[in-house]
Amino acid sequence: METPSPNRAADPLPLPEVAPTGLQRWWPQRIGWRLALGFGVLVVLMLVALAQATYQIRHITSVTQRFATGDMQRLLRVQALSLQTEGVGNALIRLINAPRENRVVEYKDVDERNKRIDGMVESLAQDLRDDDQEQNLKRLVECRAAYAEAFIDTADEIEGGNTAQAWRLLNERVNPALKTMLVESNNLLQRERERIEVRLNEAQTLFERVAKWVAGLSVLAVALAVWLGVRTTRSVVGPLAKLERAAQRIAAGDYSRRVPMTRTQEVDRVGQALNTMTDAVAQRERDIVHQAFHDPLTGLPNRAALFNPLQDAAQLPNCLALMDLARLKAINETLGYTTGDTLIQQTAERASLALQQAATDGLVGPHPVVARLSGGTFAATFYAANRAAVEALRERIEQAISEPVHCSGHCVDLSLTYGLADSGDQTQADAKALPVDTLLRNAEVALHSAKRAAMGFAWHSEAQEAARLSHLSLLSDLRQAVATSQLQMWLQPKFSLATGRAVGTEALVRWQHPARGFVSPAEFVPFAEQAGYITMVTQWMLEQALQTLATWAPTHPELSIAVNVSTRDLQQKGFADRVARMIEGSGVPAKRLRLEITESGLMDDPTHSVALLHALCDIGTPLSIDDFGTGYSSLAYLQKLPVSELKIDRSFIDKLDLSPGTQKLVRAMTEMGHGLDLMVTAEGVETEAERETITRLGCDVMQGFLASRPLHGEKLQAWFDALAPAIV
Ligand code: C2E
Ligand code: MG
Ligand code: MG
User: At 593, is the secondary structure helix, strand, or coil?
Assistant: First the structure.
């Protein structure tokens, strides 16, 4: 059978390679490098902007300085030149009009002004680099020369007293020369102003250019910063988001997809780690799923897998065969768990092979499933056309397990008991396959009835189902029965074969059901044992038995009452202590209460049983092995049991006188019992011939309808009253 593993745990898809394109080729693959690149480019841009701004500011400063120190001063000098020129004209007029004594002062003033004009012209001549200005200055110098000549002539006339001639010279030569000088100096001034205007415009253009440069660089830096920031962020955030989505997919149990490769080394490393983790988790989940649906010892599917509907509708199983390996507990106890495990493995292997072969041969449908449910119990589900096919399959399995298993020096036979269940007649048009759990429950019922009837196999039937339901309702009534005194204790006397005297009685439960009437213990005890309800019954029977013993004690203290104890009672914690307390409370000597335990019950868990029986024996209560001969116990095992009575099962006594073979067996059992110092009782003695035979074979005590049926009420009292007085 396939492992019912979910798809999500399937092998992951291969990782796609990411080929670099265009920009990605030089784009660094590490986040660290990307951040370094981004910030590095930004820093370089800032430095360039800073250098450019510093250079431009210096340039502006030098232009401004030049403007302030050169151009403006020159302008001022030209302005001063004009003023001086005007001043000279006015001084000459004053000179002509001034009286002789004042002229010295005026001459001084005119000389001063002429010197200044000369000085200015000279310094302008050095400063001017413009051709036009030089031409202007040249003309100014010429005018200055003409003026100087006219001035000397005019001064001569003034000094000569020729005022009229002086005025004439002043008007005709000095003033025109001065005017021309003024015009030329104004031209110069105008020219300088224009120059300054040009300079100012140039400076303005420069400012604007620098502003544009700095703004451009800043915009470029900001744009680059934004681009780098977005790109770096996206290159980090994008892959991280992929990782986050991948982690969410993993958390949701989707292992089929790999974390995609990116162009980011750090993220890829985390992605790789995630992929490795995904593989490991997926593998572990597959292992867990496998473990959850498989049995580790045999590798077969387990109970959970049986209910996992993997098959498609066409292959739905309509049959279930429950197979139980016989005597597994006893084998575990006596031959060891390794042998037990080997038997389980061999059974699993052989039954699986037989089933596969049957499927290949078309005896059953394809894809049959064999599962190990627990211990030595296996279930096979498959499709079969009819019951004959199922029985043919069972024979094949029987054939497959017929070879004994050799293990640890032992040679052990495999034996399976089968409980078979199907979905009814599949040839009917409305035939519907039952769910596996229903099939399993039905097969369990069939297996129990096969075991009870000591048959190899049993089919589940409607009658069994009815019985099961009836038992279920009975069980629910049982609790009520204990509480409302519907139970009765009947006593069946046991007699010594040697003396014919009653040696004791066995307590047998009877149930007077208000609706169903008498319910036989054979009908409800096995089910009460399965459900654990038997402990209530035992408790009640022990109380009744001790009460009866207490009433018997004054007249017949030698009589005992044997109460049947189930293995479920023994398994109860503190059972022995509870019995001890009850005995103590009743005041009855412990040896008057017997406890009967069936041999098969003991063999369910031999080692544990020995310890439990010892605990019971320690309280002073004698113990009996009931139904002896049906439970496969060995002499070695019996030896360990602290029992005092062996009750040979009724099946051996029935028609014993007519069966020499069984007589040999009963003799052997009796001798074995005596060899172990046990009292041997024969159960179910019905005929005189049987009584004679058991007496001849050496039995000590008899119990059966021949001597007395189980008694209750008046009949019991009458029997008791008729008893011979006790021989103490
Ligand atoms: P058992 O302990 O072996 O009890 C003996 C059974 O054999 C009783 O059947 C008894 O009535 C029957 N019997 C005695 N003599 C003869 C005979 O000559 N011929 C035939 N055919 N049968 C005879 P019963 O009372 O039906 O009990 C059946 C079984 O139910 C018991 O077998 C015992 O295993 C179980 N059982 C009865 N009472 C209790 C109880 O109180 N507690 C428990 N745990 N089991 C009980
Ligand atoms: Mg009994
Ligand atoms: Mg018995």
Answer: strand
- CA-CA distance, 589 to 383, in Å (whole number)? 62
The total number of residues shown for the chain amounts to 728
Cα–Cα distance between 276 and 68 in angstroms, integer? 76
Q: Is the CB of 508 under 6 A from ligand 1?
A: yes
> Does the beta carbon of 537 sit less than 6 angstroms from any atom of ligand 1?
yes
pLDDT of residue 356: 95
Pocket test for ligand 1, best of 505, 508, 628, 691 (most atoms within 8 A of CB): 508
pLDDT given for residue 315 in this prediction: 58
Identify the pLDDT of residue 17: 55
* pLDDT band, very low/low/confident/very high, at 9 (cuts 50, 70, 90): very low
Ligand 2 centroid distance, CA of 690 (Å): 19
Q: What is the mean pLDDT of residues 509-527?
A: 86
Which residues does 675 contact at the CB level (< 8 Å), separation at least 6?
none
| Distance separating alpha carbons of residues 642 and 616, to the nearest angstrom | 9
CB of residue 653 inside a 6 A radius of ligand 1: no
Q: Could you tell me which of 624, 656, 654 has the C-alpha nearest to residue 641?
A: 624
Prediction pTM value: 0.52
Ligand 2 centroid from CA 569, angstroms: 15
Q: What per-residue confidence (pLDDT) applies to 4? A: 43
**Position 98 pLDDT exceeds 50:** yes
CA of residue 531 to ligand 3 center, whole Å: 21
Kindly state the average pLDDT of the residues 569-580.
Answer: 91
Neighbours of 608 (CB within 10 A): 15
The answer to whether the beta carbons of residues 390 and 422 sit under 8 Å apart is yes
Least confident of 7-21, 116-130, 428-442: 7-21
What gap in Å lies between CA 322 and CA 615, rounded to an integer?
Answer: 37
Cα separation, 75 vs 133, in Å, equals: 12
Shortest-distance Cα residue to atom 46 of ligand 1: 564
Across 123-139, average pLDDT:
78
Tokens 């406890």 belong to which residue? 595
> Considering only CA atoms, which of 521, 421, 419 is closest in space to residue 471?
521
In the chain, the amino acid numbered 552 is W
**Residue 601 CB less than 6 A away from ligand 1:** no
**Would you call 490 helix, strand, or coil by DSSP?**
strand
> What residues pack around ion ligand 3 (CB closer than 5 A)?
626-627, 683
User: Distance between CA 519 and CA 508 in Å, rounded?
Assistant: 12
Burial label for 701, CB within 10 Å (0-12, 13-18, 19+), is buried
CA 59 to mean position of chain CA atoms: 72
User: pLDDT tens-digit profile of 460-507?
Assistant: 987 777 777 777 777 778 888 888 889 999 999 999 999 999 999 999
- 404: DSSP letter: P
For residue 626, the CA-to-ligand 2 centroid distance in Å is: 5
As to burial, measured by CB atoms within 10 angstroms (0-12 exposed, 13-18 middle, 19+ buried), residue 321 is buried
Ligand 1: does its nearest atom lie under 6 Å from the Cβ of 541? yes
